[in-house]
Amino acid sequence: MPFTIINPQGNRVPVVVSVPHCGTQIPDDIRDTYCPKQLQCIDDTDWFVDKLYDFAPQMGITMICAKYSRWVIDLNRDPKGAALYNDGRIITELTPTKNFLGESLYRDQIPDENEIARRLQEYYWPYHNKIRELLEDLHNEFSQVLFFDAHSIRRVVTTIRKDPFPDLILGNQDGKTAKSSLINTVLRVLKDSGYTVQHNDPFKGGTLTRSFGNPDAGTHALQLEMTKINYMDDDELCYDEKRAAKMRQLLQKMFSNLLEEIQK
């Protein structure tokens, strides 16, 4: 399977946490098509986000984490290749040919339509279908369920915007993917934390959040983007236990409040 499932401990709660960009594996059958220099460090990875959230199963939350790098196929992009934003920022493709710095990932030949279709079948749809299965299963027990997509990004990515990103960015497609009480619960906790927080700017939630968020049907979806310096070292290369512990405490508080709200 192209993902790992971490089942909840004890009684489960109506939440699924997804970490679609923590994967670093490149399949052997396509590895030689990539530039060797790029493979020395699989950049654009949401490093250690799965570790950052590994407290979640102890709270009864189910986790799904990707095994393969987003350079193989990006699980948070539209399957037909439609752009998420149209404001001039760099947007890596469904099967990226360049990294966020604009550097080429492949030696020469980029994936053609047949190869993209194969990767959709092998890696993309299994992840999406498993999330759908997990949410439907939770709906058998709970009337309201939450899909939570966890991400991180470098503090500065000038190809997206010149200014540094805020610490935390909550995305819900301008309120379309979750009911307002859940959105407000998260914003209240985050804004009381001392971190800088923005809402739907510059990220509104990717394809996963937009696909699974259907508040009218009792399925809510939120995306949380955070800058890596909040849980990694200053070079954004290594996990920083002290910074991570502070962030984990905030995330645990956020989920505790979310669980109270969604189970009312």
From TrEMBL:
InterPro entries: N-FG_amidohydro. Gene3D superfamilies: Zn-dependent exopeptidases. It holds the Pfam family FGase. This is N-formylglutamate deformylase. It comes from Uabimicrobium amorphum.
